[in-house]
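#onboarding

Welcome to the new folks! Below is a worked example of what a typical request in this channel looks like: someone posts a single protein sequence, and someone else replies with the predicted structure as tokens. Don't worry about understanding the tokens yet, we'll cover that in week two.

Example request:
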Amino acid sequence: MEREDLAKIVSYLTFDGHLRKNIREFYLSSSSLETLKAFEEMVIRNFGIKAAYEIGTGFGESYKCRFCSAKVSRLLYDLGAPNGDKMISAFAVPLWIKNDKVLAKEYLRVAFGCEAGIRKRTNAVSYEIYLKLHKAEELLECGLSFIDELKQMLLQFGVETGKTTIQKGNLRKKDGKLTKAMSFRIKTNSLTAFAEEIGFSDESKQNQLTLAVKALKIRKTLSYHLSKSNTTRAAFEKQFCDGTSRLEPAKNRFVNGAVG
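Example response:
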């Protein structure tokens, strides 16, 4: 068995996947068939068991890659994959992953591929990466402890994060439990470090990250020229985003990949 694969499988089950409470089967849910295929290949490569695919439930189009094996499920549970409803259970990053930088990287890459978002800031040339998780209100402290583990792991790679914010979640219909949303973002000055050291397991997010790094280079170029200009930052950024700035040719070269 490959340790890096095991770290990724445990991470998938911690975030977008699910290990049944009875520890007899597990699955990954995703809208990306490529992600599910990669997960299936990892499981087959390490355990030699067959997958079954099905249509997912809930919001939007999704699919499930399911494996039924009590033996493998028990092993993954022993390795630290949480079982049952993760929103109402306490768990932590397994020490064998957290204390190994190579494995920590794989775990984080999957975590951000599953749970993080990347978006362009309004009226700006920069992007932000943020990660959000939900936890039952009575287990909020456990959830915050898990978030802190992720943030400390990121620091191993020189990736700094902002404050953890807590927001109103929702009322679960099935058990009436209130939830809270916990989120944090990657600091802009750590965007390049995140891209170089970790990245996303999700291909579409990884493509956005590539654009985000290019946008950061643009922003640095903008700041340099702004320091030599009488134009206000707001006006300069508007010109830059609208394509009316004298730096438009340079911007195009960045966006099209002509400049590294």
